[in-house]
Amino acid sequence: MKKIIFAILLLCLLFGCAESSSDSGSSDFEDKPTVQYGTVSFFNESSYAVSIHADAFSGAVVTELAAGESKSVSVRASNNYGIGSVFAIGFRTKVIDDFNIACGEIYAYGIDPNMQLAVNVEAGKKYTLQIPQPSELVYETAFITILNASSNSFELTKNSMSYKQAGNGVLPVGVGEIGVYEIPASAKGIAFEDFKLKSVFKDYDIPSFEAMYSHVYNFSFDGSSVMKTGEQNIVY
Hints:
Strands 2, 3, 5, 6 and 7 form a 5-stranded antiparallel sheet that branches. Strands 12-9-17-18 form a 4-stranded mixed sheet, with no helix packed on it. Strands 11-10-14-15 form a 4-stranded antiparallel sheet, with no helix packed on it. The chain is mainly beta. The chain is elongated. 13% of the residues lie in helices and 42% in strands. It has 1 helix and 18 strands. The protein starts with a helix and ends with a strand. A hairpin with a 2-residue loop joins strand 10 (155-158) and strand 11.
């Protein structure tokens, strides 16, 4: 008799736990918020290809548009008490135009500091945003170009580490070619120093400088030394 009573109590305990677990799971599912979306139509009225980012230029890419193109995109509802959704626009610009560039065409994305697109996206509603021609562009990066005027290929190095060219990711720069590298920069300048060119088991120092936003710094290597030949702003 005691065994029968014990078995009944055990079954009740097991079914009670299963029901409690099921109720708990159901509650968690019901409390999970539903993601809602609105639709934003972007019209690129500028002469640049653009990338559209959520919240900030470092944010996720919402979509990309060619010059003059338009596209409708589902966007998460703002749900932030009227502050709205902000979109940052990157304007694609060709950095250097020279057929001797070994790594192909190089582009950078510039930001118009005076342009900010914002809209309070409500669920199920449609909105339209025009992207105008930028009044000015700031490129939060810089580049260095090195013409190989020597009779041997070279690689850009620092502390025995070799750096890949922008665009094609190749290490060596061939004879007569121009190597292009994207480098860290800031509005006030970041020191570009301790870099060398390695060619035929020898290292050649690159003159140091302060790398600033929106600049391209040009150098030439003749087989015996590296010389700075000029610098210019990225033209938009």
